[in-house]
TrEMBL record:
Protein name as annotated: LysR family transcriptional regulator
Taxonomy, superkingdom: Bacteria
Listed GO MF terms: DNA-binding transcription factor activity; sequence-specific DNA binding
Alphabetized InterPro entries for the sequence: LysR-type_TF_proteobact-type, LysR_HTH_N, LysR_subst-bd, WH-like_DNA-bd_sf, WH_DNA-bd_sf
GO annotation, biological process: DNA-templated transcription
Family of the protein in this entry: Belongs to the LysR transcriptional regulatory family.
Entry keywords, A to Z: DNA-binding, Transcription, Transcription regulation
Domain HTH lysR-type intervals: 2-59
Native source species: Lichenibacterium ramalinae
Amino acid sequence: MIDWDDVRYFLAVARGGSVRSAAERLGVNHATVLRRVAQLENRLGARLFDRLPSGYRITGAGQEVLGLAEQIEASSNQLEARIIGRDQGVRGLLRVTMAPTIATHLLMPDFAAFAQLHPEVEISVLSLDEPVNLTNREADVAIRVVYDRNTLPPNLHGLQGPELYSGVYVSRDLLAAWRTGECERVRWIVKDNVGLHNWAHGGEIPAAEVPFRTTSADAQIVAVRKAMGMTTLPCFVGDADPLLARVPGTRLRPHGTLWILTQGETRKTKRVRLFTDFVSRRLTAYVPLLAGRIDPVD
């Protein structure tokens, strides 16, 4: 008999293309993912993935299993969502997903406040750059930066929040060094998966030809704090940091709109409604910070 949990691990690898991605999504270690996939392959008597240096490539047999597994998953999720939607108790697990920067630099104090108000709710924060699938019940609530509302999945319930703005920031020490002539040009700190926004050019500080690259938002923030160069950041990060200043001659630009997203019957549960209402009020209070309308920290 096939274990549904083994199928869940198979689906995570198929969707992520690697054991690492599946382990991160499921919150387990690599060995667990490998063991679960091997168990399913043994039960089915077929190899479901080709193990390549670049990742896991699904086989023909795996493609057949994938289609059936997704049908089973959809039915399971529909049944679970209907039962959960009738749950009007506050106690239980609440899984919330968002980008790491929003979690660590904006909303974590609010999660702590919500946890104090509702200690019976078990909060699990999925701090990930890639979107989590609410339809597949990978999370209960998603807080996302949306650039075009037409891209929102039609099956999700969306609560629109404030608009975000970004600016160009540099460390105060590096800005002082440039003003006194100690350095003529300053590197750009670039996130490889985002690149440099066109609007970021044109400030008073000339850019060096050789950039500093990173794939991590946390590393990007540390690099600008350590005077590695200048970079684009959301205003709620840059303006709140006493070590940073806006680059002279640059302007703020829209960075997207925050949306609170829920799915189907899940949004009807009491703990989800309490949480989304709470976060919506907190985001409204943050409008000046998110729009760059507060004075940067001195």
